[in-house]
Structures are given as C-alpha cells and as structure tokens.
Specification:
- By secondary structure, the chain is of the alpha+beta class.
- The protein has one domain.
- It has helices spanning about 1-10, 35-40, and strands at about 15, 25, 45, 50-55, 70-75.
- The strands form 2 sheets. It has a 3-stranded antiparallel sheet, with no helix packed on it.
- Strand 1 (about 15) and strand 2 form a beta hairpin.
- The longest helix is centred in the N-terminal third of the chain and has 8 residues, at about 1-10.
- The chain starts with a helix and ends in an 11-residue tail after the last strand.
Length: about 80
C-alpha cells in the first residue's frame, strides 16, 4: 500500500506506529529507502524500548510470527514509564 499512496499523493511519505497509551512508538523517516518504508513501521523513537514476545510468554517472537508488543519508555514529561 505504501507505493500506491506515494504515487497517488506524489510526495515523500513516512509513517509511524503508536497506540492510545503510547502515541509514538516507531517512526519511519523520509531518509529511509522506499523498500524500508514499505515493509516496516520504522525505528523506535528515542527513549523507547520495544520487544515482540511470543504469546505463550516463552521469550522473543521469531520474525514473521504473531507476538505481543512490550514497551518501556517515557512519552511525556513527568510520565510514569509504560510497561505493557
């Protein structure tokens, strides 16, 4: 979909990933290649640690498998670190 949107808008495109509790987790950059931007959600933003763990709790999930996102970091001044 990345390539279709970029062609339709005729502009550079970067995107990010977040959720209600942690609005900015990962961000793509216009400096990333189109291939990187089309296949990833970017890199974790400064101060954020991201892990994807197996659903059975048995450690990190392998690439291309379903898992649960675990986060640690600060999202605003004075905020309590989020662990989910």
């Amino acid at each position: 979909m990345y390539h279709e949107v970029r062609a339709e808008l005729d502009c550079l495109l970067a995107h990010g990933y977040g959720m209600t509790e942690a609005p900015t987790i990962c961000m793509g950059s216009p400096l990333d290649t189109p291939e990187q931007l089309s296949r990833t959600e970017g890199r974790p933003v400064a101060g954020v640690e991201v892990r994807v763990v197996r659903l059975d709790g048995g450690g990190d999930a392998a690439a291309d498998t379903v898992g649960e996102v675990w986060l640690r970091g600060r999202w605003s001044a004075g905020a309590t670190p989020i662990r989910s």
